[in-house]
Amino acid sequence: MSESVLNKAYEPSDVEKRIYAFWEEQGLFKASEKSEKPAYSIVIPPPNVTGVLHMGHALNNTLQDILCRYKKLTGHNVLWMPGTDHAGIATQNVVERKLAQEGTNRHELGRDAFIERVWEWRKQYGGAIINQLKRLGASCDWERERFTMDEGLSDAVRAVFVKLYDQGLIYRGDYIINWCPRCRTALADLEVEHEDTAGNLYEIRYPAADGGPGLIVATTRPETMLGDTAVAVNPKDERHENQIGKNLVLPLMNRQIPVIADPYVDKDFGTGALKVTPAHDPNDFELGVRHNLAAPKVIGDDGLMTDAAGKYAGLDRFAARKAIVEDLKNLGLLEKIVPHQHAVGHCYRCKDTVEPNLSKQWFVKVKPLAEKAVAAVESGRTKIIPESWAKTYFDWMNNIRDWCISRQIWWGHRIPAWLCEDCGRMIVAIQDPVACTACGSSRLAQETDVLDTWFSSALWPFSTMGWPQDTELLKTFYPTSVLVTAFDILFFWVARMMMMGIHFMDEVPFKDVYIHALVRDEHGKKMSKSTGNVIDPLEVIDSLGCDAFRFTLAAFAAQGRDIKLSMERIEGYRHFINKLWNAARFSLPLLEGFNPAEKVPESDFLPDRWIAARLAQTAKTVAREIEAYRFNEAASALYQFTWRELCDWYLEAVKPVLYSDGNADPAPTRAVLARVLSDTLILLHPFIPFVTEEIYQKLPGAKSSIMLESFPSGAGDDALAIEQMNLVMEIITAVRNIRSEMNIAPKKALKVLISLPDEAAGERVGPYRDIICNLAKIERLDIQTAAPRPKGAATALVSGLGVFVLLEGVMDLNQEIDRLESQIAKLDKELAKLNAKMSNRAFTDKAPQDIVEKVAAQQAELSETRAGLVATQERIREIAGS
Questions:
Q1: Rounded (10°) CA dihedral 630, 633, 638, 640
Q2: Partners of 482 in the beta sheet?
Q3: Potential cystine with 285: which of 176, 389, 411, 820 (Cβ 3.0-4.6 Å)?
């Protein structure tokens, strides 16, 4: 028999690049618009063109790849649509930083030249994350890769904007928006990250115009008071009812402002008097609209105070706050400063403090769109998995506000709107107009704003497939089958795709939405560079291999539960990959010359029947769990079957047959081994694609790629074989446990007696005597009905059978008792030291918590070990005295 065709050790770095290139060369990732196979499609959540692979990408794309590879094996025509997002603000920031290093900026370059520089950057660096996804084994149809700024996708964006505008669902108007002074652009509500911040609540007296005491208001942002145009009180607040309709003097500005009544004011909060700044607070803006108040803007788009701020004009907003507080103190109008913890909005890109600001922006009326998207989930046309996220989706969608879609940057889809400089007509069109549709003037100025990046991403499921053209790709693959995403973009992206897909395609964009959890560090903490607990996926792949990394992610991807990841856990699954590799190295030489096409007698050897039946059960389990997005359960079933049943039991059980000197025909067992090994590789392939492809191609009769195989059907229900083999394994395990407990050398042959409850039970054991003796290392096995326990025998009860391991001549029981006594005494000394330390308050109260926990863990471990030794010692004493 020749040596294995596989190397002694599996080296991922030697395999992964070669195998991936082979898949691409063979076109194995390609989808077809004309296939008769059932369609299955996924659109990739497009990573930012500025991005690099992080743990979120790794988990998200591993799960998508598992689904796509599984569906290919189950006979589907699979499209996994790849692409990247232009990431307007993020990309512009990257290029602007580069320009700053060169001593220039976008304004010096001009808009057109700046856009050219961004495209140059994208061409040079924008493909990095795509190559990194390939390192992960992603089986996307790369020939269809899209970019949100592609010509085709840009056409779709324009078409959608114009149609929504024509339908009255896009409008332009003054509104309070979230403004980032650093990025100089509007932000959607979802792009603002609220962080609890230690601040102050300032109580300020606004004197009455008639000389009275006036009212006291409270604010966390004194700089905004310069733009106050009223003070509001609740009409049912008896404390202030005599003030309604009177005027107050706005401190520092010496401007009179009215006291108005509005039920919005919470009379139980603070003083019950609310300063109203319509240009700098969304709720105040609504009050201003209701009461026809002016809205002076005192904080500019650059974060500096405007001319409307009087003597504070030109100051930074936070410098103005200090100056205003100081001036109020000097005037005796600052009643109190109270420390106040409150949520402050920050830009999700640059982390600068966001300023609510009155601005003229473009908005989508989302309420009509949201109602249809809610109904689609309520009716089950789209399912959200886990279902618990559906409530979050409904809560947000039912309380949705109009979506600000304009951004004051240059990189992105420029809004297709033109203002006639002669008659003021606004023209919104798909094609650039050459003349005003109202007066015929050619003096047209295009809107300088671009669209929110999420606007183009919302069209992703259908724009990537050629819409607005009625393409074969759309007909075949829309709606898509599932969207795999993280919960943090449920509203950014998922909800918006639902709204746009239903509105423009009259069909949901995906049938399922699977929301996976976060990947955290081993202690459950969020990974971040600042805390130094980030695990780099590419470094993991380089050191431990892609397959071990992917299997780890899948094994811990339980629905609704965050993944606690560590290098030790990935290392553990690297051992699993090695176990599979070694099983193949053992099996392949035994299959040399085997021809799968040749018919051989069906094996009646119990381990053959059992492994075939367990393979069928495992195939059913894996299919069921993948279909239900329970990736961890599928991975667990595969791990159990491969390591425990195939490697630890089956391969050991068939060695005597396969290494037979002619007393038994190995052909039936070889046939079973060949099929089981092949099918096991196919079952594992979606999770660990590289190693399974490498082994599969060495199998006799293999196709050119494992990706062309069919997923095992799960046929073959041999319940009797499973029942019989389970009993055999229980007997073997019982003997092995006694051997371990009694400290008997693994190679030492044993004499065993099995006592049957009746003669009929002998049929459950007798035929498998050889298997039991081989795997339990038994030199003599007696099987008797109602046999008494022999003197000096260790006993186990297995499914009504008595298993007696004869210890006479195998070990000196008294010597073993003494050996255990010595070990127990040694442990007692060590435990005494630990017990003393843990009972010392000076140690437990003053030592670092991690040190105390470490000592406590040692104490518990040694106590458990001691209890086990005492129990074994007592058992041996019992045996010795029997």
A1: 180
A2: 512
A3: 176
